[in-house]
Amino acid sequence: MTSATASAATPTRPPGPTGFFSSLVYRPGRDPLTFFSELVATYGKLVYLRSNGEHIYVVTEPRHIKDILVTSQRKFKKGRGLERSRPLLGDGLLTSEGEAHLRQRRLIQPAFHKERIAGYAAAMTHYASEAAARWTAGATLDIDAEMMELTLAIVGKTLFDANVQAQTHDVGQAMADIMGSFWMRMLPFADTLERLPIPALRLAREASLTLDRIVYAMIAERRTSPGDRGDLLSMLLLAQDEEDQGRSMTDQQLRDEAITLFLAGHETTANALAWTWFLLSQSPEVEAHLHAELDRVLGGLTPTVSDLPALRFVEQVVTESMRLYPPAWLIGRRAIEDYQIDEYPVAKGSIIITSPYITQRDPSLFTNPERFDPARWTPEFKAALPPFAYFPFGGGTRRCIGESFAWTELILVVSTIAQRWKLRLVPGHPVVPHPVVTLRLKHGLKMTTAGR
Asked: Edge to edge, what strands does the sheet with 421-425 contain?
């Protein structure tokens, strides 16, 4: 065989769909979870496709994910989804790149140190207890909306030392309107669509202005009474960037980070909690095990950070919930230089898609992957699991800065509410994932309360 023949026989791209089929990736109305799941089931763990002129690689193997997010992370920048989120998020921590991102992360990191998070715990359990006390036995609630309201109160107090409960409806509606425009913004001609009177995009623009009004009001109020209140906003107002001639953050910079943390600290945690309550309602044995641990460890008392090590099964429940329904269901990157995945060259400018939702349901990594089984998360199982087989918080320098905050909040909120209530899904209520920036519930989550 000549060298030319050998070269021609070597594939230059992984297997994947061709023609019109591949253009359906970002079509509004197409279920992305089904699309990507079927794509991997059909073509394997590394898939190539063209969509709207983009070269896209869907990557699901943990070793490749680790290389993209950690080992070779400097070869990539954020993906298309966050590129299109800049009008909302500005240059906050989620969207900034390179040295600007590292500087912002250094300024924000102290707000998430262990000691600070311990100080936030009392607010987490306070608002969770308040919500549980407000419910009545036999009531029908939209638990999705309840968790959104709860996590908004927590993030408002802990990160901004503000009571935002009076603005819960405005913030919740604004977030829903912004999420509702996500897939339209992913279309290749989205910039043109923005100039047209399209209702979904108009609502998203108005929602962004609503969030701006709320956040800028908090910043203005704090400018008049500076000082450290033990929250993130205090730290950002007092912080000086040593690499930028000691300048303090502008109102625009503060706004960008505040909006970003509203999304990350409110939206994602609420989704994780809602999915957890749904899964518990479908698993009586798991729920009984959870209640037994709460009775043994807490004995009816409000949990504190000192109880976290003993609440091992609660942690396992939350871990398994985020395996099945990770709030950040898709993580994208764009190559800023040529790259290689095994024998396949990946050209500069290509999009890499990784998905915790897909990888965390891989039967080669998780036995009975569709089953809700918190007991699988033994120390031995976790030790044997390849790195990035489970990555709901991403990885590398872009790993979620609030990961410890989220774990603490999830465990404390579940423990506080589950001590008092069991939640039952309303018969016939459709439970449908709605993947936008986060993994929402398309129809909310109607549940009835039952006392313990």
From this structure: 140-142, 446-451, 421-425
Whole-number Å distance between alpha carbons of 258 and 105:
13
Query: For the CA atoms of the chain, what is the radius of gyration?
Result: 22
pLDDT in tens, 213-249: 888 888 888 888 777 787 878 878 877 545 555 567 7
Specify the amino acid at residue 366: F
Structure-token match 């709860």, residue found: 150
Side-chain-facing half-sphere of 225: CA atoms under 13 Å: 5
Q: What is the pLDDT of residue 8?
A: 47
In the prediction, which pLDDT does 7 show? 43
Q: Which CATH number fits domain 12-451: 2.60.40.150, 3.40.1210.10, 1.10.630.10, 3.30.360.10?
A: 1.10.630.10
Are 253 and 101 a contacting pair, CB within 8 Å? Answer: no
What pTM does this model have?
0.89
Structure-token match 């425009």, residue found: 181
User: Which residue type sits at 220?
Assistant: A
CA-based end-to-end distance of the chain: 75
User: Could you read off the pLDDT of 9-24 as tens digits, one per residue?
Assistant: 556 899 998 765 454 4
Residue 97: C-alpha distances to residues 103, 249, 316, 371, 399 (Å): 10, 17, 34, 38, 13
Instruction: Say if CB 159 and CB 235 are below 8 A apart.
Output: no
Task: Please name the residue that has the structure tokens 């009586």.
Answer: 284
Query: Domains of the chain: which residue ranges?
Result: 12-451
The pLDDT score that the predictor gives to residue 138 is: 97
